[in-house]
Amino acid sequence: MASLDPSLKASEAASTAKEVKPRDWAKIGLITTAVLYLTLILFIPALNVFVQAFSKGIGPFLANLTEPAFQNAVKLTFIIAAIAVPVNTIFGLCAAWVIARKRFRGRALVISILDVPFSVSPVVAGLMIVLLYGRNGWFGPFLEAHDIKIIFALPGMVLATAFVTLPFVAREVIPVLEELGTDQEEAAQTLGANNWQIFWRVTLPSIRWGLLYGVLLTNARAMGEFGAISVVSGNIASKTQTLPLFVEESYKQYETESAYSAAVLLALLAVVTLVLKEILERKTRIKEVKEDT
Amino acid sequence: MLFLPTVALLLKASTEGPARFWSIATSPIALDAYRVTFSTALVTAFINGVFGLLIAWVLVRYEFPFKKIIDAAVDLPFALPTSVAGLTLATVYSENGWIGSLFAPLGIKLAFTQWGVAIAMLLISLPFVVRTVQPVLTDLEREIEEAAWCLGASKFQTFWRVLLPPIMPAALTGIALGFSRAVGEYGSVVVVSSNTPYKDLIAPVLVFQRLEQYDYSGATVIGAVLLGISLALLVLINLLQAWGRRYG
Question: Which of residues 109-138 of A touch B (CB under 8 A)?
Answer without folding.
Answer: 112-117, 119-125, 127-132, 136-138
